């Protein structure tokens, strides 16, 4: 169906909305670019087999998200959660971050006071959420988040995505449109370019049925005002935790961070060699100059490719701590040297270590490592054993 056709699409009919609603998302009198919605409760609209909704639907002091649904029923999964929508979590203490220029990475996010591992630095509702496997039947390139390059015809995508951008408040729209777009001039339309440059996967929200496979193709991507200003390092110090009930993304420190230091998240798989990481990062148009990239050696590449299996094996080693404790502690030291304490596998390893100390009857060490584990476990939420 061509955009603008008077006939409603299947999804429009399902959502019970007319095609006119699609082009006047705030009602007849509002919604054009540059106009602020006066409606207090935004209605859903369906365009090109996608449903556009706002979370929460009423204007909210904690912010609103524009959510593009591939499968309209996904909305119910979130809206039917007990207590939905909860307020966005608030950090303890005074504000602890600022968005500033960096010498070589554009804008970045810095902490303005010392931060402890496990601390909530900020939480925010996304400006925009789109499904990774966003598919629209009559658009040439239907998997917008999984392909990259200049060969695609993406301008049509921008017309569709513009529906969500037009629904944003003026402040949110300005924040969204000011985000970096490294795809400018190489094929992607502006809005799609912004999503590709700034989107983070939300792994606990699947578009459609929860058992859909391959799961990774059906996650959502979020674009946020502050989180999307965080630059990359292969030695990350912050991770995101998306809470469905408050529909917000929390930035949580995965290391102690000193006042004045920059926050870094990893945009690539940190268990890869420096060369593979470089090729994964090429689509963001920069070369990483973190310590682990600059000082990469065959030995550090080998370690990065092996530590994952070893860390997971530590779950078995706990039954024979006398044989394995030294090896496990050495693995922990090596992970710290590579700056990998902000990863799931480091948290997993800490859990193995405190269980080993428990099995060895070394209560003081067990307590010390358990405390470190609990601080690191804010995002991963591994079971305490
Ligand atoms: C999600 S944005 C991060 C915020 C961005 N610096 C800004 O000014 O809006 C991603 C872009 O930031 C830049 N960037 C991120 N990490 C970088 C790094 N380690 N070195 C150089 N540039 C980086 C790249 O241009 C990348 O495409």
Percentage of residues in DSSP E strands: 15-25%
Question: Can you tell me the number of structural domains?
Answer: 2
Q: From the coordinates shown, what is the CATH architecture of the largest domain? A: Beta Complex
Amino- and carboxy-terminal Cα gap: 55 Å
Protein name: SET domain-containing protein
Organism: Agrocybe pediades
InterPro entries: SET_dom, SET_dom_sf, SET_domain_protein
Pfam families: SET
Short description:
The chain is of the alpha+beta class and 385 residues long. Helices cover 34% and strands 16% of the residues.
Structure explained in plain terms:
By secondary structure, this protein is an alpha+beta fold. The protein has 2 domains: 256 residues, Beta-clip-like, CATH 2.170.270.10; 86 residues, no CATH class. The protein contains 12 helices and 13 strands. Strands 1-2-3-7-9-8 form a 6-stranded mixed β-sheet. It has a 3-stranded antiparallel β-sheet with strand order 6-12-11.
